[in-house]
């Protein structure tokens, strides 16, 4: 069993907070390019990362990862944003058998109907029918900069309808705690708004009323 460096209830806490609140709480450059979107509405991932890089149009690294990835991980796959169908139904079935809980990739997937039917959470830059070769694997399990956020094995990936963030494993417990404090304050603010107070007042912006 893989020992996590963050709380055992991280999945439920991350899902309750969501990627946007956790991004604000992290105070880190941990947001991934917003062009990487969920394959279907409601897809959600909160899991330790297993990073790998594929050569453009080459998905050998994904096949190698299936024999190395710790169960309960999400694959974070860099392709240099080269669009092709690196992932489809076959790899989805293989991933489920290997205990992989999701995929974040910047290079494209296919077999969309089959993936949706299995409800396997995928976040991708594109959908592409183009096939791939199997000739090289630049890195499997090694850290790299994934579309704006550094990713290393064991970092926490949170992905939902708002986007994808990657929180360094050493910062996860703090980020969750600060996220919950932030969410509590927002709950209080929304109650005050319902009672008729304004955002200008609650956010100390009332002085702007006399400007502009």
Automatic annotation (TrEMBL):
Residues that coordinate or bind Mg(2+): 111
GO biological process, one term: methylation
Cofactor: Mg(2+)
Protein name (Swiss-Prot/TrEMBL): Dimethylmenaquinone methyltransferase
Keywords, comma-separated and alphabetical: Lyase, Magnesium, Metal-binding, Methyltransferase, Transferase
Superkingdom: Bacteria
InterPro entries in the record: RraA/RraA-like, RraA/RraA-like_sf
Keyword Lyase: yes
Origin organism lineage: Bacteria, Pseudomonadati, Pseudomonadota, Gammaproteobacteria, Pseudomonadales
Residue numbers binding substrate: 88-91, 110
Gene3D superfamilies according to UniProt: Ribonuclease E inhibitor RraA/RraA-like (3.50.30.40)
GO molecular function: lyase activity; metal ion binding; methyltransferase activity
